[in-house]
Automatic annotation (TrEMBL):
Phosphoribosyltransferase domain residues: 17-154
Pfam families recorded: Pribosyltran (PF00156)
GO molecular function, one term: glycosyltransferase activity
Protein name: Phosphoribosyl transferase domain protein
Organism: Leadbettera azotonutricia (strain ATCC BAA-888 / DSM 13862 / ZAS-9) (Treponema azotonutricium)
Gene3D superfamilies associated with the record: 3.40.50.2020
């Protein structure tokens, strides 16, 4: 599988541009929900943007939820939500909600979270989904009903294409090899060699297996 290393400042700059586009199109959220942990960095930037441009009006609530995918019978993924910092039960008809995550891949997590919000009486027009990377498999047999409304990058793929692992350098460390740590971390800050030596050892052990 191919890997792309996406620097944090690239995500930050793209997030600001996307937030500005959302604002210009007239969608001012009352609540921004981020899916932890991937959506946190993107959501932080978007929240800061709206905190400034909307400072003289009602504050935009910023909240998070923890959602995890579990593999069960027949290898199908089941999404379970383990907590909300602002319960969707508190949403009122008329509230505008922005749901933020780093990537739309299978789309199962975002669709699960969106359904939970829609079930509280929020109409689809008042729920928008924003992601940094939108993987769209154009020849997929069936598309999930909730697709991103806003995105920084769209990757149009065939289900037969070789997939790309997008490594967000703002927070991800899992899955790095010793060579990747050397190229993307130690070369910029040699002190990280000691900090991340456990990861480097584990990566080497995995390569031997």
């Amino acid at each position: 599988m191919k890997k792309e290393f996406l620097k944090y400042d690239t995500v930050r700059n793209n997030a600001l541009k996307m937030a500005h586009r959302i604002y210009q199109e007239g969608f001012i959220p009352d609540v921004i929900y981020v899916s932890l942990r991937g959506g946190a960095y993107l959501g932080n930037v978007i929240s800061e943007y709206f905190k400034i441009v909307h400072r003289r009006a009602r504050p935009v609530y910023y909240a998070a939820m923890v959602a995890r995918s579990y593999t069960g019978i027949r290898e199908s993924d089941e999404v379970k939500v383990e907590g909300w910092t602002y319960s969707p039960d508190a949403l009122r008809v008329g509230d505008r909600v922005l749901l933020v995550d780093d990537i739309f891949d299978s789309g199962k997590t975002i669709n699960h979270l969106a359904r939970m919000i829609l079930e509280k009486g929020i109409p689809r027009k008042d729920l928008k989904v924003a992601v940094h990377d939108y993987k769209y498999f154009y020849n997929k047999a069936e598309q999930l009903p909730i697709q991103p409304d806003y995105f920084c990058r769209k990757h149009e793929l065939s289900v037969k294409d070789e997939d790309v692992w997008i490594h967000y350098m703002s927070h991800e460390l899992v899955g790095l090899t010793s060579e990747e740590l050397e190229a993307h971390y130690y070369s910029q800050d040699p002190e990280l060699r000691e900090v991340l030596q456990v990861i480097a050892k584990d990566a080497k052990d995995i390569q031997k297996e």
